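Weekly structure sync, notes
Attendees: PL, DS, HV (note-taker this week)

Item 1: UV-endonuclease UvdE-domain-containing protein
DS walked through the input record. Source organism listed as Schizothecium vesticola. Sequence as pasted into the shared doc:
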Amino acid sequence: MPRNAKKAASTAEASSSSNSVDAAQPTRPEVQLRRSGRRIALPNDDGEEKTREIQAKVLGHRPDEKGMLYHYSDESDERAARTKEGVQLAIDGLATMERRLKIATKTQKQKVAKSTFADNLQPPDPNESDAESDSMRASTLRKAESEPSKQEQLRSNKTEQKAPKGRHAAKMPELTPIDEVRDLGPVDTGEPDAIDSAERGAGRPPPINSNRLPLPWKGRLGYACLNTYLRAAKVPVFSSRTCRMASIIDHRHPLQDPSQPEHATKNRPDKTQAAQHELGQQFVQNLGLANARDIVKMLLWNDKYGIKFMRLSSEMFPFASHPEHGYKLAPFASEVLAEAGKVAARLSHRLTTHPGQVRQPCPPGHLPVPSLLSRSQFTQLGSPRREVVESAVRDLDYHDEMLSLLRLPDQQNRDAVMIIHMGGTFGDKAATLDRFRKNYAGLSDGVKARLVLENDDVSWTVHDLLPICGELNIPLVLDYHHHNILFDAEHCREGTHDISQPDISERIAATWRRKGIKQKMHYSEPCAGAVTPRDRRKHSPRVATMPPCPNDMDLMIEAKDKEQAVFELMRTFKLPGFDEIHDVVPHQRLDENQPPPKVLKKAIGNGKGSKRRRTTKDSAVGVEETACDDNGEETTGMGTPIPDEEIGMGGPENRVYWPPGHEEWLRPKKREAKRPQVAEESE
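Item 1 (cont.): predicted structure, written out as tokens:
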């Protein structure tokens, strides 16, 4: 018999034998044991046999007399972990689960959004009796159940989709086809629809802005937390160094060589040694000390360029208010903070903070709660959750201790305020205000003396906060940008005109005078092209104008470009000191010491322009040397050393301004590979 005929006969015989066995056994769903021991039902399909064969090969399973697959040895565990097919099988399974979840979620949202029940259900009339209301709701439910939804109608019109092919063909349930989901339109994500977005965005009434400028300017302009010029220096100067909680735990173990400084690869914490809690605390506290030391440099830099107002970073001492990794500042940071406060007092520099601007990590075992607020407004005294309030109190105590350790003079100490937002409304503004009153009463006197409220762009307007500020004697910060997004339409319009009228501006100023604190305001602008309220919340890199505030105001400019936004205003309105600020030289820092030449080459050789390394014989005969940089170009050497106190200060020509969109000028130019130029072929 020919070979092909024998093969066909054997295949037919095996097929008939398999069918007879299947017919003899009772029908039951095939079950496979996971490695955890749980059973998973597999639907019968053409791809089932192939899937089981792959699993048996990869995971080391063997079938019993009933055709069920069992795990039987630890050796198969290791083989599954090492086998490429096993990894791919797991990846494909996770991808399938993710795809199913996405489609199911989208389908469920479409069912709710497109259901006739949601369209036909009307709110009950208070004049109706309970019986009439119940009857109406029952009839609406029956109508919604009897009428097919749009999604069901689409599914009935579609032809049956082909079964998926591949390894997971047997595991794929019946899913809504992608085409059907796409035909249903956009998913309702809770955002305003197109009409509402246009009404609140581009179609909203134009803002009414004041044409008054606070000139001649006699106040103080400030920026928040970070100096872009100092941050980009070769030795960065900033006050927001931080770490992860895992790093604190790792650093509880001694270094591999305690006599040497820590290195990312050569001298790491040795986890084989016993952990010591104080080592982890020392690690995170050293970060805080480095942050605090840089305050002095930032204050001196600000004073040189006419800036007398700055917000300190809440990340200065990482995890200081954390329930597990938190710590007090007085035992180790008193001297460093007192030195910074001495410089601020000498320069008449105002320092403030904004607690809650940095999202604190969740305690172990807790999931983060997503927030709809425009910024990280997580210091909320009006929250209904006890753990949130306790965290807010710890955070306020930490900021109060940090400002108190600056040892500022009396007036500067009063002006060192802590600004927070009211936070969410939690469905009931009145109840939120009651919780705020109760929790505010339990704060320490130091926190009460510094606490200031600010209107936000999501929940609380200026008119919402003025009554509670007057009742509890809390100053109110007016944020013009937030007001333009969220305002009380019954009292004022969008823009700077109405909110700056004497009736409202005087009430705001009175909240500051009662406590003897110098008033401050916040100003920023939305990014170009922002239309919806969500888009307009983002701050623009710089601002184009100044608000109609008093000309002696302390005005905080909240912009992405930080001190450069202040320089932009100084140049635009010719404010004092604007002529002392000059543009940086692209990709060059003239206020830093240059490193010595890396390579010494000499301009001699057999050919013209050839260079080779210097030798002892060359030195003996006095060959002229030429210092070259990495690109082979000649340099002039190190030059005159720059004193430490002048490093990063802009040099003698005060070159510290970079044009909008050119922050990369602060850093050395990236090296580009030189590609050989190919001569064009002449026609």
